[in-house]
Amino acid sequence: MIALGPLDELVGYHLRRASSAMRMDFAETFAETPMRQVLFGVLSVVSAMPGLSQGKVAEALGIRRANMVALVNELVDLGLIARTTDHRDRRAFSLSLTQAGEAMLHEALAQIRRHEDRMLENLTTTERSTLVNLLRKIHGSTSR
Amino acid sequence: MIALGPLDELVGYHLRRASSAMRMDFAETFAETPMRQVLFGVLSVVSAMPGLSQGKVAEALGIRRANMVALVNELVDLGLIARTTDHRDRRAFSLSLTQAGEAMLHEALAQIRRHEDRMLENLTTTERSTLVNLLRKIHGSTSR
DNA sequence: TATTGTTATACTCTATAACTATA
DNA sequence: TATAGTTATAGAGTATAACAATA
């Protein structure tokens, strides 16, 4: 085992490695499909708050509006979300899931739960919930 | 507060947000300098294991050899690490820190500790160490 | 044959600046 | 003037494949 030096005491380093491990296993889980972490995030928020504007969804997920455009285009092209102009503010788009989008959300969620169970098998249920609560304290954007 | 749906229960999501928050504050902390998370990682490992080959340093950090090349070039150009051919295996490079590299490692470490203290001010010392241990269980590459 | 470092390449993520249409 | 979405662009991270030199 190679010594890491002071790096090994830094939270930022371990966050990067753990996040990267999750991201890579997520990608493997959805290889040969268009699903990615960030696309699932959009589906989940739109499902929870149908009719929300594109910009608000981006804000909830910590995504810049400029970067949201291609993501929404992708999901619309895949037939997973519908984008309609808000009749009360014609600058804005209201997003909602199509039936295919709802189905995809639920299918993907089941796969993601298996992926997380696999990646987190060394953590007890309590540890897992402790971890989520500690992470929420760091990024500060919790919905509760 | 906007509801996130099932996303809010997923460890992968919170890892991504927390890691991203740390990465962005790190970048701000070292704005106007060439220091980045990954460059600090290389300096730290090389300092802990001087003489190690480029490939071994990459492996310890979870970096592909192909991507390591530019990082080492950058650190050599900055005068922070020395790259000498290993006389026992002339394919390999032995890496070590220059004096400037050692100085930079220690200066940057002090700044990183302040950055982490700032970002993690809502966590107790115990929570912080719990977090690191849980993250180690996920990525599995610990040096102890 | 296998390994070390290298080059070339490509895709994703993320950031900024400037534009348009609406408010 | 300000805001929602858009376009263009650029830097960083990370992945693969193929190559030269050496083992």
Automatic annotation (TrEMBL), chains A, B:
The transmembrane residues are: none
> What residues does the HTH marR-type domain cover?
8-140
Cite the GO molecular-function annotations of the record. Answer: DNA-binding transcription factor activity
Q: Which GO terms describe its biological process?
A: response to stress
Protein name, UniProt field: MarR family transcriptional regulator
Organism of origin is Sphingobium nicotianae
